[in-house]
Amino acid sequence: AVGRGVSLFCHTDVADMMAVLMMLLIIFRLVVWEAESGLDGINMAARNGAAWLTRIKWAVGLMASAAVLLLVQLYKLRLYTSAYGFTGWNRVIQVLPEFVGVDRRITVYWFVCVFLVCKTAGFLLLYTIFFWLACVGRSAVRTVILYGLFTGVSLFTAYGISLSGYLAVLRYFSLAQCINQEMLLSGYHALKLFQYPVSYLGLWTAVSCVIFFVLAGLIFLFYQNSYTGKVKKGYRLLAASEYENALTVFEKAASGSPKKAE
Fold first, then answer.
1. Which contacts (CB < 8 Å, 24+ apart) does range 172-177 have?
2. What predicted TM-score, i.e. pTM, was given to this entire model?
3. Cβ of 18: how many Cβ atoms within 10 Å?
4. pLDDT tens digits for range 21-68
5. Are the C-beta atoms of 122 and 19 separated by less than 8 Å?
6. Can you tell me the distance from the alpha carbon of 87 to that of 99, in angstroms, rounded to the nearest whole number?
């Protein structure tokens, strides 16, 4: 069918899974590999502390993951449109059977742009979740276990729950939607919020932004409250001549996890 390439491009397939795998490799190199190699002491000695260094790693990984995803998506677009047909950039997206429910009269070009923006945003939310889980797990074994649990729960809520049941909200807001954007963008879906109809896409965007900023903050606070974060805070208090407070912070760091002190 004419334009089937655009429809296939919007489907989630093995190329998207490859992008996720490459994202996980980036996170493992930035977080888990350093923890396994015993480089926490070097991180603690960083000029602005481990918390600041972790934020830099998160930002670098974020940009690298976004670049990987965009390359994969552009390759998919080129591959599918050349192999299965293309309807033309200036035709309305509703000419494609899969997108007749889209409530905005926009062209294929703008729909693909919106799709890429939403796909990238969801992917970066997923990256932030996996980065936070790696910070919590630290070791390769614990991190893989956390990843497995998260993936299992996400897939179950995305594909194991009916949209007509009481638990449908778990499916609508399953974090597997970070990668699979088909239900979000295939048409207008209204959800009931305080007895009022609300756009599913708008509500998902709001919830995703909240999760993203909360986890980004937790990544920072995790290291602030770790051994290295407390030691760095103690040195800042010493520099400010707050000796008693600095002593208290150092004592709390020393009485914490012995592993962190090594």
1. 172/200, 172/204, 173/204, 173/207, 175/125, 175/126, 175/129, 175/150, 177/122, 177/204
2. 0.74
3. 12
4. 999 999 998 888 877 776 655 555 555 556 677 788 888 999 999 999
5. no
6. 13
